[in-house]
Design goal:
Order of helices and strands of chain B: EEEEEHEEHEHEEHEHE
Low-confidence stretches of chain B: none
CATH architecture of the largest domain in chain B: 3-Layer(aba) Sandwich
CATH topology of chain A: Hypothetical Protein Ta1238, Chain: A
Structural class of chain B: alpha/beta
Distance between the termini of chain B: 25 Å
Number of strands of chain A: 2
Largest sheet of chain B: 6 strands, antiparallel
Shape of chain B: globular
Number of domains of chain B: 2
Number of helices of chain B: 5
Helix content of chain B: 10-25%
Largest sheet of chain A: 2 strands, antiparallel
Order of helices and strands of chain A: EEHHHHH
Structural class of chain A: mainly alpha
Distance between the termini of chain A: 56 Å
CATH topology of the largest domain in chain B: Rossmann fold
Oligomer: heterodimer
Bound molecules: flavin-adenine dinucleotide
Low-confidence stretches of chain A: none
Shape of chain A: elongated
Helix content of chain A: 55-70%
Strand content of chain B: 35-45%
Mean pLDDT of chain B: 96
Strand order of the largest sheet of chain A: 1-2
Radius of gyration of chain B: 17 Å
Chain lengths: 190, 217
């Protein structure tokens, strides 16, 4: 079957809940940014070598969580579709917290700001962190547009917690990747 | 992934080149109206939408025999007792009950999910079925009985059409003529070109309309 549908040639696209909206719509931006983050996570995973299987598995888990979040973001509240989707839940951000604590316990304490970069893998982890913050900003914007609507989007609050944790995960992961590769962190000298 | 082996129980021709083929329903096989199954055969996979009703002890699909096609001619030649491998039912082309009027638009065998919806008990919809000749209006009686308006859109318009709301031309022309401004849920199934054109038409004429699509080819 053809990959191109040509139904979006005039700048509109369809939400999972069927509405036709412009591609600049905040909901489209939200799941589009989540998709970009997912691609960055894929790029990060591609820089990892053998012996880093545990991190690779974590990243696959994150990619699948981001898919789940993206599906949720692509339907409007009250739509029947949402009844068949699972919102992100506590179990998922608790898992991130576990990984964050695990890496952080092995890292020297931070006393200054560090410049994003280092090994290619760490540089990608910083890219993922900053894209994650952008996804978060758009989801906050979406949540604001939903405020006061008759049907609350109950999944957004959980997505926000998850994203907030996820960017912290990428931060400690970047540090861990630099440390394990013997790359020193560049401190901000002001 | 779950796989099932299904056995052909019967095959009947609806027109010269379209047939309904039925299979035994394997234990544990579940589906929702609007979903499809994927046949796997010698390294190729092909999707077919289940006709329903979902509680029937057989599975049925309506298939167009594509001349020169890689798989549909094989199915067309199937005999009772032949076995096929299929995957679990999948897809999200479901009917959603809302306070908007539903408009179903199909071309050719793209009528299949709408047969499944009607057998599920969905009523009060407008149905446009784009085909070349009246003989290709598969399941017409059943669909006309369930629909609020049943509108065949015929490429080859007969002198005395059988259905009162028959339209001489394409489905988008029929929509332009028969659909008053309003909020609708559009369900489109069949050829990609139809989906593209009707979606463009909805964007232009029915702002706020919701569109659900299932492209066959
Ligand atoms: C989600 C989905 C659901 C589908 N459901 C059905 C169904 O319920 N019934 C059905 O007959 N087909 C259905 N199809 C199409 C089906 O999967 C095959 O593509 C079709 O049977 C042709 O396969 P083939 O190997 O014989 O032809 P191929 O060798 O793959 O040749 C493909 C060509 O056949 C033509 N073609 C494909 N499907 C049709 C069709 N339905 N009518 C007319 N021409 C066609 C197109 O020109 C296409 O380019 C569905 C496809 C999808 C993606």
């Amino acid at each position: 079957m053809k990959i191109y549908t040509q139904t979006g040639d005039k700048g509109k696209t369809g939400l999972l809940s069927g509405e036709r909206v412009f591609k600049s719509h905040v909901r489209i931006r939200a799941y589009g940014e989540a998709d970009e983050l997912n691609a960055a996570v894929g790029a990060l995973a591609a820089t990892l070598s053998g012996g880093q299987d545990q991190i690779k598995m974590q990243l696959v888990r994150v990619q699948s969580d981001l898919f789940q979040a993206g599906a949720w973001l692509s339907a409007t509240p009250g739509d029947e579709t949402l009844q068949r989707l699972t919102p992100l839940g506590q179990e998922q951000w608790r898992r991130l917290e576990g990984w964050i604590d695990h890496f952080n316990d092995q890292l020297p304490e931070l006393r200054t700001f560090i410049l994003p970069g280092g090994s290619p893998a760490a540089a990608w982890a910083h890219m993922a962190r900053t894209i994650c913050r952008r996804v978060e900003r758009v989801v906050v914007e979406l949540a604001h547009t939903q405020a006061g609507q008759p049907l609350p989007d109950n999944g957004l609050a959980d997505i926000l917690i998850y994203l907030n944790r996820l960017s912290d995960y990428f931060f400690v992961l970047a540090r861990h990747l630099n440390h394990s590769a013997g790359v020193s962190e560049a401190a901000w000298k002001g | 992934m779950t796989h099932y082996s299904v056995t052909v129980t019967s095959l009947s021709w609806l027109t010269r080149n379209t047939f309904e083929i039925r299979f035994n329903r394997p234990a544990g096989f579940e589906y929702r109206p609007g979903q499809k199954i994927t046949f796997e055969d010698g390294g190729i996979t092909r999707d077919y939408t289940l006709l329903g009703p979902e509680h029937r002890s057989e599975l049925a699909v309506c298939v167009r025999h594509v001349a020169g096609g890689r798989f549909s001619p094989k199915l067309a030649a199937a005999q009772p007792g032949d076995r096929y491998r299929i995957g679990a039912a999948h897809g999200y082309f479901f009917f959603k009950s809302t306070d908007r009027r539903a408009v179903f638009v199909a071309t050719g065998t793209g009528i299949a999910p709408f047969v499944a919806f009607a057998r599920q008990g969905v009523r009060n919809f407008d149905l446009l079925h784009g085909v070349h000749t009246e003989t290709q209006l598969y399941y017409a009686d059943e669909l006309a009985a369930a629909a609020r308006r049943y509108m065949p859109c015929l490429g080859d318009f007969p002198d005395s059409p059988r259905w009162p709301l028959s339209f001489d031309g394409r489905v988008d022309g029929c929509l332009a003529q028969h659909l008053a401004p309003g909020a609708y849920d559009f369900y489109l199934c069949g050829r990609n070109e139809m989906i593209r054109d009707v979606t463009a038409f909805v964007d232009q004429r029915f702002k706020g309309g919701r569109v659900f699509t299932e492209a066959f080819f």
